Amino acid sequence: MNDDCLMQQDRNFLWHPFTQMHDYAHRDLLLVDRAQGIRLYDRQGREYFDTISSWWCIVHGHSHPTMQHYVREQLARLDQVLLAGISHEPAIRLAAKLVELTPPGLSKVFYSDNGSTACEVAVKMSLQYWQQSGQPQRRELVALERGYHGDTIGTMSLGGVPEFHQAFAHLMFPSHRLPPPNCYRCPAGQLPPLKIAGGAGAGLATGEADSPAPPSAAGAPDRDEPFGVAGEVLRCDCQCLEPLAQLLAAEGERIAALILEPRILAAGGMIIYPATWLRRAAELTRSYGVHLIFDEVAVGFGRSGTMFALESAGVTPDFLCLSKGLTGGMLPMAVTMTSDEIYQAFYGEYGENRTFFHGHTFSGNPLAAAAALGSLAVFAQEQTMAGLPAKMAHLDRCLERFKELPWVGDLRRLGMIAALELVEDRATKRPYPASRRVGWPIFLAGLEQGLLLRPLGNIVYLWLPLSTTREEISTITEKMWQVLSNPANIAGA
Ligand SMILES: *Cc1c(COP(=O)(O)O)cnc(C)c1O
């Protein structure tokens, strides 16, 4: 079928996710024909850098031969079988690998098939656990404003991105919402910037993830974690944790769980926050016996610079949700990992009614499990994690000049993720109004440059595959400079 015909049929029959279809009434969508490494190709052979890892899931690049090999072998053997009361080797081997990779304490793996369900599973397990463990009053849930856990009704109820979910407000269950640790727009509002001599270079990263933090001495406040905002190094004592402390003091024994995205609130605006905040939030939550649900659906599998973002804070949650990068982005799959203690509360004679009645048709799909095993094999083969620090440092160097642009209010990076927050007024940090749709001309100009950029509101970001080479980082950031330094691409600049 030729392109025109395909596009016509797309208009006739396809409804795309997170897309205003009217935008394409007189404009064709990018029609991707094939992909190799970090490049997508259209049918004319034009190439586009996949700077957002195809919605944050591609890890080792597209079409990795090792992963293809794993999936092909599996395809010849077993395509799909239910996981209820049945098992198969790829699901077993992957579960064992995940337990080995994650911190001690996470010893059980529950499969599902997307990030939203991974989070819903954690929430349901937590609630049912408390009912079966003598604390049925623990029924309330806590989440962060600007947090994002998916688009199902349950995860929307715990979401903090009203732009996406407002229309369904009447369906959502009530839950507590806390202000996020947003360093650029610090809610405590009283952190004097403190320039540290010789701190240049450290300025770009908001709390490095490459070195795992030492476990903090019990009770000792970590006042000293330096981290950077717009190139300035700050010292922070996490005053923005006060609302959590107050909520726990008032209602701690009624709360079942706190759910959050470790180190970066991604869909809510690429809000990167220090490991100290995460560590202290975890300690505080734990001290009230409340479950911690870490949603690493987006950042798991290396994106933050460590295999899991939780490593930077040295904390282990009660539930860990993983999905996007789990199969290296090749096939849909998700897991909710938890502890033996949680698992045991569901274990008993059938008649005791402790069973976790939850499952999805494709839970633990053998092909997806094979892809995930293939991806983990590539991590070992290519020593992916060991290569990241040099790439991250190079990314910092390449991004440095973007700070000169008057419309760049903040520049932040965590691992292979970097975000530029565009503002109408740098001094007051006044954001561009949503009606300006700042991201749209940038998206279009990006395509012209051969870049797949997909700004989130006023946030232009890179979410690079871990396989991106230093050379590719140079090329991508140069092309991004061509887009962002041109005032014609900045609405209203
Ligand atoms: C994408 C995402 C989800 C939802 O995953 P889906 O597979 O799209 O349902 C949940 N949590 C986080 C942090 C995400 O980024």
UniProtKB/TrEMBL annotation:
HAMAP family: BioA. The record marks F18 as: Participates in the substrate recognition with KAPA and in a stacking interaction with the adenine ring of SAM. Homodimer. The gene is bioA. Gene3D superfamilies: Aspartate Aminotransferase, domain 1, Type I PLP-dependent aspartate aminotransferase-like (Major domain). Pyridoxal 5'-phosphate binds at G115, S116, D295, H360, T361. The modification N6-(pyridoxal phosphate)lysine is found at K324. GO terms for biological process: biotin biosynthetic process. Its cofactor is pyridoxal 5'-phosphate. It catalyses: (8S)-8-amino-7-oxononanoate + S-adenosyl-L-methionine = S-adenosyl-4-methylsulfanyl-2-oxobutanoate + (7R,8S)-7,8-diammoniononanoate. Its main location: cytoplasm. This is Adenosylmethionine-8-amino-7-oxononanoate aminotransferase. One of its GO terms (cellular component) is cytoplasm. Belongs to the class-III pyridoxal-phosphate-dependent aminotransferase family. BioA subfamily.
